[in-house]
Backbone:
């Protein structure tokens, strides 16, 4: 997967050519539309009412178009002037702002009925100038956003984190700002279709909507919860194994195998198991020949 | 494309600018009227969020005097239509928005206001 946020700051990366390329690419268009629709679904707005929404990182208005179709009134903010220019050419309905979301919003408290943001949050995690501090910018962003949202309402962010640390950093910042909610992962077992949504809630939600929504699944896959539980178990086991390994190393130098506590076959099986859980490729199958000595050949 | 509905929600967000930071004052304005389909239900639901005095003042500074001084308790359909015109159809294409508190100027060009702050103005 390409990561434009690692190449250059957004206002520079999305220059004139990239902006028009991005907007005219039909694949990006469909993916953006799908994600926007899903985000709207997660937003759980009251049906058949037009709402006042904020589109964070609206870009050329691909997501705004969907909001228009649904009859919502929206305000879009983006930091890339070229993208906004394309949005103007496309004559989207919403009001557009040239705005750095890391600097916080100036909207009055309780303005918006909801906020969506498609593929934007990961940009906030980069320090593009010496004065940028990602954590401070995240905090500023989430606190001002929290203030400008109505109570109760929701904000849904689709984003591409490059590591689990980033996810933790973002959710922690959101929680500190007073948001409830959490991460929703759609199609967690698919490499391509896997999408992560941060579903944040402001204030007390309707009783039937107070839970974090479930992620979507392909048919025939294990359901999300069990999958997560299994993964957690694996991680725990791996931690224990590592701990045991370390303890073994301390006990005797190099005596791990011949020391007598572990027999070689078990040790090899354990190692192979570990590699498999780590996702290493090409680990040989276990069989009755595993860990046997080769016959002496003449 | 700054509509008054958005302008009525917009305060200055410069650091430590807490007094008189709303509403931003328009100057050197180029106004465009674009007709949009009416959605009076939306306007009616939006009423509690509006700051009426700020809206009326801004509308008058832009030359629209259809709104009454005091917010009517019950809006008639005609009043809602006038409100719709002011909120949704008046677009400021060019000009400046100035904060009365700190004097920061947000320039609007091509219908897009530039809300970027210099580094020392960013709040924390």
Residues:
């Amino acid at each position: 997967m390409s990561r434009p946020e690692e190449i250059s700051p957004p206002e520079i990366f999305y220059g004139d050519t990239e902006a028009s390329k991005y907007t005219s690419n039909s694949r990006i268009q469909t993916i953006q539309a799908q994600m926007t629709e899903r985000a709207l679904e997660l937003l759980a707005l009251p049906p058949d009412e037009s709402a006042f929404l904020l589109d964070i990182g609206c870009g050329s208005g691909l997501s705004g178009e969907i909001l228009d179709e649904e009859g919502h009134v929206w305000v879009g903010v983006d930091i890339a002037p070229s993208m906004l220019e394309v949005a103007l050419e496309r004559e989207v309905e919403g009001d557009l702002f040239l705005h750095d979301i890391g600097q916080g919003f100036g909207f009055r408290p309780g303005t918006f009925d909801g906020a969506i943001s498609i593929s934007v949050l990961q940009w906030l995690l980069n320090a593009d100038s010496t004065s940028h501090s990602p954590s401070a910018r995240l905090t500023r962003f989430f606190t001002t956003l929290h203030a400008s949202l109505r109570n109760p309402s929701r904000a849904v962010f689709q984003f591409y984190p490059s590591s689990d640390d980033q996810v933790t950093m973002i959710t922690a910042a959101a929680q500190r700002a007073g948001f409830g909610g959490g991460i929703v992962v759609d199609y967690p077992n698919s490499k391509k279709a896997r999408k992560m949504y941060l579903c944040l809630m402001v204030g007390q939600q309707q009783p039937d909507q107070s839970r974090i929504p479930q992620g979507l699944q392909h048919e025939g896959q294990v359901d999300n919860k069990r999958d997560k539980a299994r993964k957690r178990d694996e991680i725990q086991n791996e931690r224990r194994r590592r701990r045991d390994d370390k303890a073994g190393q301390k006990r005797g130098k190099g005596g791990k195998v011949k020391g007598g506590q572990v027999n070689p076959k078990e040790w090899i099986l354990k190692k192979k198991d570990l590699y498999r859980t780590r996702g290493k490729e090409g680990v040989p199958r276990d069989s009755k020949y595993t860990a046997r000595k080769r016959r002496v050949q003449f | 494309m700054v509509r008054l509905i958005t302008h009525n929600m917009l305060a200055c967000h410069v650091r430590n600018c807490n007094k008189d930071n709303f509403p931003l004052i328009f100057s050197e304005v180029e106004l465009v009227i674009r007709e949009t389909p009416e959605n009076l239900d939306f306007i009616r639901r939006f009423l509690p969020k509006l700051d009426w005095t700020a809206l009326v003042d801004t509308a008058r500074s832009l030359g629209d005097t259809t709104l009454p001084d005091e917010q009517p308790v019950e809006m008639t359909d005609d009043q809602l239509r006038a409100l719709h015109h002011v909120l949704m159809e008046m677009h400021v294409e060019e000009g400046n928005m100035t904060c009365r508190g700190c004097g920061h100027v947000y320039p609007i060009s091509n219908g897009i206001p530039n809300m970027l702050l210099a580094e020392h103005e960013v709040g924390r």
